[in-house]
Write a structure and sequence with these properties.
With 192 residues, the chain is mostly helical. It is built from 9 helices and 2 strands; from the N terminus they run ββααααααααα.
Length: 192
Amino acid sequence: MTPSADGAEVVDLRERRAEAPAPRRSAHATLAAAMAAGDDRLRALAYHLLGSRDAMDDVLQEVYVKAYRHLDEFRGESTIATWLYRITYTTCIDHLRREQRTDPMTSEQIEDARPGSAGIDDHLAVRDELHQALATLSPERCAAVLLVLRDGYNYVAAAEILGVPPGTVASRVAHGRRQLAAALSTDTEGGE
Protein backbone atom coordinates (compact mmCIF):
# COMPACT_ATOMS: atom_id res chain seq x y z
CA MET A 1 0.00 0.00 0.00
CA THR A 2 1.07 3.49 -0.75
CA PRO A 3 0.17 6.55 1.37
CA SER A 4 -1.87 9.20 -0.45
CA ALA A 5 -1.39 12.95 -0.14
CA ASP A 6 -3.86 13.06 2.78
CA GLY A 7 -2.13 10.22 4.61
CA ALA A 8 -4.66 7.47 3.80
CA GLU A 9 -3.24 4.26 2.41
CA VAL A 10 -4.06 3.55 -1.24
CA VAL A 11 -3.76 0.16 -2.88
CA ASP A 12 -1.36 0.25 -5.79
CA LEU A 13 -2.84 -2.03 -8.48
CA ARG A 14 0.63 -2.88 -9.74
CA GLU A 15 1.43 -4.28 -6.30
CA ARG A 16 -1.82 -6.29 -6.32
CA ARG A 17 -1.06 -7.80 -9.68
CA ALA A 18 2.37 -8.83 -8.52
CA GLU A 19 0.79 -10.42 -5.44
CA ALA A 20 -1.72 -12.50 -7.48
CA PRO A 21 -1.39 -16.09 -6.35
CA ALA A 22 0.58 -18.37 -8.65
CA PRO A 23 -2.11 -21.11 -8.60
CA ARG A 24 -4.63 -18.67 -10.11
CA ARG A 25 -2.28 -17.77 -12.97
CA SER A 26 -1.47 -21.45 -13.38
CA ALA A 27 -5.17 -22.37 -13.55
CA HIS A 28 -5.72 -19.89 -16.37
CA ALA A 29 -2.74 -21.27 -18.26
CA THR A 30 -4.03 -24.82 -17.72
CA LEU A 31 -7.48 -23.82 -18.99
CA ALA A 32 -5.99 -22.17 -22.08
CA ALA A 33 -3.88 -25.24 -22.79
CA ALA A 34 -6.84 -27.61 -22.29
CA MET A 35 -9.05 -25.54 -24.59
CA ALA A 36 -6.36 -25.50 -27.25
CA ALA A 37 -5.68 -29.24 -26.94
CA GLY A 38 -9.35 -30.20 -26.93
CA ASP A 39 -10.53 -27.63 -29.45
CA ASP A 40 -10.97 -30.10 -32.33
CA ARG A 41 -12.91 -32.56 -30.19
CA LEU A 42 -15.06 -29.85 -28.65
CA ARG A 43 -15.71 -28.48 -32.15
CA ALA A 44 -16.67 -31.95 -33.42
CA LEU A 45 -19.04 -32.54 -30.50
CA ALA A 46 -20.70 -29.15 -31.01
CA TYR A 47 -20.90 -29.60 -34.78
CA HIS A 48 -22.50 -33.03 -34.59
CA LEU A 49 -24.99 -31.90 -31.96
CA LEU A 50 -25.92 -28.66 -33.71
CA GLY A 51 -25.49 -29.60 -37.38
CA SER A 52 -24.26 -26.15 -38.34
CA ARG A 53 -20.82 -24.58 -38.44
CA ASP A 54 -22.26 -21.15 -37.60
CA ALA A 55 -24.09 -22.50 -34.55
CA MET A 56 -20.97 -24.45 -33.56
CA ASP A 57 -18.83 -21.30 -33.68
CA ASP A 58 -21.38 -19.31 -31.68
CA VAL A 59 -21.70 -22.01 -29.03
CA LEU A 60 -17.95 -22.52 -28.70
CA GLN A 61 -17.44 -18.82 -28.11
CA GLU A 62 -20.04 -19.06 -25.36
CA VAL A 63 -18.31 -22.17 -23.95
CA TYR A 64 -14.93 -20.44 -23.74
CA VAL A 65 -16.45 -17.40 -22.03
CA LYS A 66 -18.32 -19.61 -19.54
CA ALA A 67 -15.21 -21.66 -18.80
CA TYR A 68 -13.11 -18.58 -18.18
CA ARG A 69 -15.75 -16.90 -16.01
CA HIS A 70 -16.40 -20.03 -13.95
CA LEU A 71 -12.82 -21.21 -13.60
CA ASP A 72 -12.96 -20.40 -9.88
CA GLU A 73 -15.81 -22.93 -9.56
CA PHE A 74 -13.76 -25.76 -11.06
CA ARG A 75 -13.15 -28.04 -8.07
CA GLY A 76 -10.74 -30.46 -9.70
CA GLU A 77 -12.99 -33.46 -9.04
CA SER A 78 -12.61 -34.34 -12.72
CA THR A 79 -10.11 -33.41 -15.39
CA ILE A 80 -10.35 -29.99 -16.93
CA ALA A 81 -11.08 -31.68 -20.29
CA THR A 82 -14.11 -33.44 -18.79
CA TRP A 83 -15.27 -30.13 -17.33
CA LEU A 84 -14.94 -28.46 -20.76
CA TYR A 85 -16.88 -31.28 -22.45
CA ARG A 86 -19.64 -30.85 -19.86
CA ILE A 87 -19.85 -27.11 -20.51
CA THR A 88 -19.85 -27.73 -24.28
CA TYR A 89 -22.57 -30.38 -24.06
CA THR A 90 -24.88 -28.33 -21.82
CA THR A 91 -24.35 -25.20 -23.89
CA CYS A 92 -25.25 -27.12 -27.08
CA ILE A 93 -28.38 -28.55 -25.48
CA ASP A 94 -29.35 -25.07 -24.24
CA HIS A 95 -28.82 -23.72 -27.75
CA LEU A 96 -31.02 -26.45 -29.24
CA ARG A 97 -33.73 -25.71 -26.70
CA ARG A 98 -33.55 -22.00 -27.45
CA GLU A 99 -33.86 -22.73 -31.13
CA GLN A 100 -36.67 -25.22 -30.37
CA ARG A 101 -34.89 -27.70 -32.55
CA THR A 102 -34.66 -30.98 -30.70
CA ASP A 103 -35.48 -33.08 -33.75
CA PRO A 104 -32.65 -34.46 -35.89
CA MET A 105 -31.79 -32.65 -39.10
CA THR A 106 -34.06 -33.37 -42.02
CA SER A 107 -32.57 -34.85 -45.17
CA GLU A 108 -33.19 -31.50 -46.91
CA GLN A 109 -31.12 -29.69 -44.26
CA ILE A 110 -28.36 -32.25 -44.66
CA GLU A 111 -28.36 -31.85 -48.44
CA ASP A 112 -28.25 -28.05 -48.09
CA ALA A 113 -25.25 -28.32 -45.75
CA ARG A 114 -23.24 -30.52 -48.15
CA PRO A 115 -20.38 -28.95 -50.03
CA GLY A 116 -20.36 -29.20 -53.81
CA SER A 117 -19.83 -32.80 -54.87
CA ALA A 118 -17.34 -32.12 -57.68
CA GLY A 119 -13.92 -33.54 -56.76
CA ILE A 120 -14.81 -34.87 -53.28
CA ASP A 121 -12.66 -37.86 -52.44
CA ASP A 122 -13.84 -41.06 -50.75
CA HIS A 123 -12.68 -39.88 -47.32
CA LEU A 124 -14.94 -36.85 -47.45
CA ALA A 125 -17.82 -38.95 -48.75
CA VAL A 126 -17.48 -41.39 -45.84
CA ARG A 127 -17.22 -38.50 -43.39
CA ASP A 128 -20.35 -36.95 -44.89
CA GLU A 129 -22.25 -40.25 -44.64
CA LEU A 130 -21.22 -40.59 -41.01
CA HIS A 131 -22.32 -37.01 -40.30
CA GLN A 132 -25.69 -37.77 -41.91
CA ALA A 133 -26.04 -40.91 -39.81
CA LEU A 134 -25.10 -39.03 -36.63
CA ALA A 135 -27.67 -36.36 -37.51
CA THR A 136 -30.40 -39.00 -37.24
CA LEU A 137 -29.59 -39.48 -33.53
CA SER A 138 -31.06 -37.38 -30.76
CA PRO A 139 -28.54 -34.91 -29.29
CA GLU A 140 -28.31 -37.03 -26.14
CA ARG A 141 -27.52 -40.24 -28.05
CA CYS A 142 -25.17 -38.44 -30.42
CA ALA A 143 -23.18 -36.99 -27.52
CA ALA A 144 -22.94 -40.37 -25.77
CA VAL A 145 -21.82 -42.12 -28.97
CA LEU A 146 -19.20 -39.46 -29.75
CA LEU A 147 -17.80 -39.39 -26.22
CA VAL A 148 -17.57 -43.18 -25.82
CA LEU A 149 -16.88 -44.48 -29.33
CA ARG A 150 -14.89 -41.64 -30.85
CA ASP A 151 -13.20 -39.98 -27.88
CA GLY A 152 -12.63 -43.12 -25.81
CA TYR A 153 -14.31 -42.03 -22.58
CA ASN A 154 -15.56 -44.86 -20.39
CA TYR A 155 -19.21 -44.87 -19.32
CA VAL A 156 -18.45 -43.33 -15.92
CA ALA A 157 -16.50 -40.39 -17.39
CA ALA A 158 -19.09 -39.86 -20.14
CA ALA A 159 -21.83 -39.96 -17.51
CA GLU A 160 -20.07 -37.20 -15.59
CA ILE A 161 -19.88 -35.06 -18.72
CA LEU A 162 -23.50 -35.68 -19.70
CA GLY A 163 -24.89 -35.45 -16.16
CA VAL A 164 -26.63 -38.82 -16.27
CA PRO A 165 -25.99 -42.24 -14.68
CA PRO A 166 -23.47 -44.58 -16.40
CA GLY A 167 -26.28 -47.02 -17.24
CA THR A 168 -28.05 -44.29 -19.20
CA VAL A 169 -24.85 -43.66 -21.17
CA ALA A 170 -24.54 -47.39 -21.91
CA SER A 171 -28.15 -47.49 -23.09
CA ARG A 172 -27.72 -44.40 -25.27
CA VAL A 173 -24.56 -45.83 -26.83
CA ALA A 174 -26.20 -49.22 -27.50
CA HIS A 175 -29.28 -47.64 -29.09
CA GLY A 176 -27.11 -45.14 -30.96
CA ARG A 177 -24.92 -47.92 -32.40
CA ARG A 178 -27.97 -49.79 -33.69
CA GLN A 179 -29.44 -46.60 -35.15
CA LEU A 180 -26.12 -45.69 -36.80
CA ALA A 181 -25.71 -49.20 -38.23
CA ALA A 182 -29.20 -49.05 -39.70
CA ALA A 183 -28.66 -45.57 -41.13
CA LEU A 184 -25.28 -46.46 -42.62
CA SER A 185 -26.51 -49.75 -44.12
CA THR A 186 -29.48 -47.91 -45.66
CA ASP A 187 -27.12 -45.29 -47.12
CA THR A 188 -24.86 -48.03 -48.53
CA GLU A 189 -27.77 -49.96 -50.03
CA GLY A 190 -29.31 -46.79 -51.47
CA GLY A 191 -25.98 -45.70 -52.96
CA GLU A 192 -25.37 -48.87 -54.98
